[in-house]
Amino acid sequence: MMKRMLVAVLALGLAAACTPEADDAEEAPVSQSVAAPTPDDVVVRINAEQNGQTVNVAVNQRFAIELVGVPTAGYVWTPAQLPAFVTRAGEAQGNTVPEQSQPGYTGGNHWEVLMFSATAAGTGEIVIEQRRPWETNEPASDTFRVTIVAQ
């Protein structure tokens, strides 16, 4: 029994010694990201990196908030707070990686694009929460905030 264990340990050590160094190893291909499916007529595009920031928009100009969600697990981004001068102006969803278009691909993150329009001048905060709609007593799994200044 001891001899078998020793042979196994030596075999693993030899295999590790024959493994190419990370610098010599061929790199695996990296998936290219797919851009958010925001319509071309949307001038201002707000993304997750702008969480907590202030963004200027023009009155009557459609703007979009592009967030990645997990709708396949039930988690969707939903406005929890909108200023009185901001109205909904559409939505779009789409893949985040090309592989999601292949047959048999399941799950994964997806783009959720929420579009709005400022109907008047003003300053106010948009709060968008990610949650499962049926879990009404649970806190949001994530929150996105942006202050909109419409002129």
Verbal overview:
There is one protein chain. With 151 residues, this protein is mainly beta. The protein has one domain: Immunoglobulin-like (Sandwich), CATH 2.60.40.2020. It contains one helix and eight strands, in the order αββββββββ. The strands form two sheets. The protein has a four-stranded mixed β-sheet with strand order 1-3-6-5, with no helix packed on it. The longest helix is centred in the first third of the chain and has 17 residues.
What topology does this entry show?
Blueprint: H1 2-18, E1 44-47, E2 54-57, E3 62-69, E4 76-81, E5 86-95, E6 110-118, E7 122-131, E8 142-150
Parallel strand pairs: 1-3, 2-8
Antiparallel strand pairs: 3-6, 4-7, 5-6, 7-8
Q: What is the helix content?
A: 10-25%
How is the largest sheet built, in terms of strand order? Answer: 1-3-6-5
Shape: globular
Largest sheet: 4 strands, mixed
Terminal Cα span: 80 Å
Number of strands: 8
Task: Please supply descriptive tags for the structure shown above.
151 residues; mainly beta; Immunoglobulin-like; four-stranded mixed β-sheet; globular; disordered N terminus
